[in-house]
Specification:
By secondary structure, the chain is an alpha/beta fold. The protein has helices at 11-25, 34-37, 45-54, 67-77, 98-104, 149-160; strands at residues 30-32, 60-64, 80-81, 89-92, 118-123, 130-135, 142-147, 170-175, 179-183, 188-190. It is globular, with a radius of gyration of 16 Å.
Length: 192
């Protein structure tokens, strides 16, 4: 039998889900998702890996940037694309209008904060950038990390929204080297 992908939608999604949880539970920690992404291959292998882990036919998503990614995600997961303000998951590729994404993404309600969007942001390299400080749940005191410019811009835009607790946006940032970082909604960029 010929398979379209080497990616195993049972075992690889379970292994990947554990890595996503580790990244989100430890803000600023980078995890390696590259071995799973190689099984999907192509330009958007990292985004497709995260999509295969998180999406199915009962959730929706939006793509800001390259529309080809939306077709590939639908083909892979059967999730349906919707407009940006209704999306549960938002995939942001290079060249997208990040201020519009953050402004229009749903942030949940006080009754249902879990109805907020999760943004999957593409970065050139997670290990290249400025030294920044993060604080919030999952971080003892303040943690210094090297932060890529894409994530720094996204966090500054998110913090400018002044969401009331527990509202906000969660971020996963992926790069072409196979690295992933999770930033929960209550993690804040400290001023230097």
């Amino acid at each position: 039998m010929n398979k379209a992908y080497e990616f195993d939608f049972v075992y690889d999604t379970q292994a990947g889900f554990r890595l996503l949880l580790e990244a989100l539970s430890n803000p600023g920690r980078t995890v390696e998702l590259g071995a799973l992404a190689q099984k999907l291959d192509g330009t958007y292998a990292m985004q497709l890996t995260v999509a295969a882990i998180l999406l199915d036919n009962e959730v929706n998503f939006a793509v800001c940037g390259d529309p080809e990614l939306a077709d590939r995600i639908t083909e892979l997961t059967l999730a349906q694309p919707v407009n940006l303000s209704a999306a549960q998951y938002i995939f942001v590729t290079a060249g997208a209008d990040l201020p519009e994404v953050v402004a229009r993404a749903k942030c949940g309600t006080l009754r249902d904060p879990q109805q907020s969007a999760t943004v999957i942001l593409a970065a050139a390299d997670l290990q290249v950038g400025k030294l920044q400080k993060l604080s919030g749940p999952g971080i003892k005191g303040v943690q210094e990390i090297i932060m890529c410019p894409e994530l720094q811009e996204a966090l500054l835009l998110r913090d400018a929204q002044c969401y009331e607790y527990p509202l906000g946006l969660d971020f996963f940032v992926v790069d072409k080297r196979g690295c992933l970082m999770g930033i929960p909604r209550k993690t804040r960029l400290e001023s230097r």
